[in-house]
Amino acid sequence: MGNADVQEHLKQIVLSLPDAPGCYQYLDASGIVIYVGKAKNLKRRVSSYFNKEQISAKTRMLVSKIRDIKYVVVKTEEDALLLENNLIKRYKPRYNVLLKDDKTYPSIAVTNEYLPRIFKTRRRTRGATYFGPYSHVPTMYALLDLCRELYQPRPCKTIMTQEGVESGKYEVCLDYHIHRCKAPCIGKQTHDEYLRNIAACCDILKGNTAKVAQAMKEEMQSLAAELRFEEAQAVKEKYDLIENFRARSEVVPGLRQDLDVFNIISEENVAFINFLHVTEGCINQAFTFEYKKKLDESDEELLRLGIIEMRGRGLGGAKEIVLPFPVALPEEYATVTVPLKGEKKKLLDLSALNVKQYKFDRLKQAEKLDPSQKNMRLMKEIQQQLALPTPPLRIELFDNSNIQGEDAVAACVVFERLKPCKKDYRKYIIKTVQGPDDYASMAEVVYRRYKRLKEENGTLPNLIIADGGKGQMEIIRKVVEDELELNIPIAGLAKNDRHKTRELLYGFPPQSIGLKPESQLFRTLSAMQEEVHRFAISFHREKRSARQTASELDNIPGIGPKLRTALLQKFKSVKRIKEAPLADLQSVVGAARGQKIFDALHATQSE
User: Fold this and answer.
1) What angle do CA 105, 111, 115 make, to 5 degrees?
2) What does the pLDDT read at residue 342?
3) Would you give the distance in Å from CA 207 to the centre of its chain?
4) How confident is the model over 52-97, as pLDDT tens digits?
5) Rg (CA), the chain
6) What pLDDT is attached to residue 549?
7) N or C: which end of the chain has fewer CB within 10 A?
């Protein structure tokens, strides 16, 4: 089928689409589903993909692959939401956002046995009810510990049947004797009581701790009224346990309604979403997950998918959803609230804190596996902070060094992907400047550096950083832009009175870029500044030492370059040559020359 035939085929399908809610599927030439979407109005939504003026480059790539369109009409928008989620899970289309696999997160299982068990698991199979998954594992363990302390569900893995219990097939084990189990397998605890305890555990796992606590309080009061004080005391101890747990987990004491809270942080290729389910002011379900973007999806689209995903797993289900911005959901699905203050805003901020921490942890984990990711992230941060057209893969820094104009030198250090590229480091002896003039020295070195690169078609940097403030930046700008007519972004690293990095400057006139001193980017830039300073100082010291060495040994008649080199190789410095005994000097250069050098150096000292 030619391109014109394909376009005509797709056009006819679009024209025949109904003005009704539903889901649509795009198929490629192999008949594979490459994208699934939902719409309030199928005709209007699908038509928008073929409007060339409104779609992005990534969407144009998707459209170029479409060879056929299938669709399903549903009654309501809510049905469309659920169907879309199910179809994405079924087909895993190439161009839909990808929910990162969460199989590594544990859940709590309550089995459907005659004597149900409660335990942690990472696998979900039939024959159990699951709570979770829990991205914050300590929360899961706290819930398991609470259930065990209150109700002692059997910890053994033995499959127990009603026939086996009634026939006395099982024997009491150590768990009964150490009070970890009440031995329902041999009738020490009745089956009805055991099932009531399991039901109470399920209430706790659902977050209904207030309901469990109230039932305990009523039981305690009933027992006390019947003068059964020992039994009432045992219930009171359990009541105190659950009240203590509620006090520790209650984040909004005044809130007495169920809420689902969502927040999102979105980056270029990935989005992180946090979900909190709040019951009676307590967070009883918390989960953070990530979506890998495919088609520049908006935060609203991703958050909607996240809400459907969580409810599809049986998590949440509150009639009110708290969000950071409005998201289009069917009216019958839930009420959307975007709080600006109050208790619900406090919960939204807590969700934002959780999603930021999750993002930080994921980045750290990824950087450990692939250290280059860290540098790429920092380069993108520099690009964003300075509004650069591309990430600064190559950065060059300059610094001067002299003492009152003596032995004036400069240095250029090069960083590629934020790593020192020492083979491209360059040292410069200042040739045209007399006296201590840092601005003129910088102008000379920058001109020499980039004039040569320009003439030789060398690799130019994506960013130049001056070891200094506004003055140094302006000098570099005049040379690079006005004299050499090059377009290279220029920044500056200003220092404080203690010669430590104070701020990053950018733009003309230069403006301070707000970086926190404790941030990774600030520390990286400070280390780069220290590196260019170290390199310049080291070169200055070499030049000064060479001059001083030359001035003392070269003044001695008969001492040439070879003899001077031999002495320095043996004694390492002029100071040690002066301190050396006559015999040691003579062993290197001979008796006559050794005596001559010894007399000359010590005559200088006596003067």
Assistant:
1) 145
2) 85
3) 30
4) 665 677 788 888 888 888 888 887 777 787 788 778 877 888 888 7
5) 38
6) 58
7) C
How many Å apart are CA 28 and CA 16, to the nearest integer?
Answer: 20
Residues of the chain with pLDDT under 70: 1-2, 52-55, 98-104, 135-136, 246-256, 367-369, 404-406, 499, 545-555, 604-607
How, if at all, do strands 419-420 and 320-322 pair?
unpaired
The total of other beta-carbon atoms located within 10 Å of residue 101's CB is: 8
Other Cβ atoms within 10 Å of 123 Cβ, number: 9
Pairing of strands 107-111, 68-73: unpaired
Dihedral, CA of residue 412, residue 533, residue 405 and residue 576, to nearest 10: -110
CB contact burial 26-47 (16+ within 10 A = b; e otherwise): bbbeeeebbbbbbbeebbebbe
pLDDT for the residue 607: 47
Angle at 415 between CA 413 and CA 418, to 5 degrees: 145
Is 252 in contact with 281 (CB distance < 8 Å)?
A: yes
Closest CA to 355 of 321, 315, 323: 323
Tell me the one-letter amino acid at 135: S
**In this predicted structure, what is the pLDDT of residue 605?**
53
Q: How far apart are the first and last CA of the chain?
A: 102
Residue 111 CB partners (closer than 8 Å, separation 6+):
117, 118, 127, 128
Burial class (CB in 10 A: 0-12, 13-18, 19+), 215: middle
Burial readout 398-410 (b: 16 or more C-beta within 10 A, e: otherwise): bbbbbeeeebbbb
Distance separating alpha carbons of residues 185 and 189, to the nearest angstrom: 8
Torsions phi, psi for 433 (to 5 deg): -110, 135
- pLDDT at 322 (0 to 100): 92
Closest CA to 442 of 474, 481, 490: 474
Q: What is the dihedral sign for C-alpha 447, 451, 453, 454?
A: positive
User: Which tokens in the block code for residue 404?
Assistant: 């009152």
* Orientation of helix 191-206 relative to helix 209-225, angle to 10°: 140
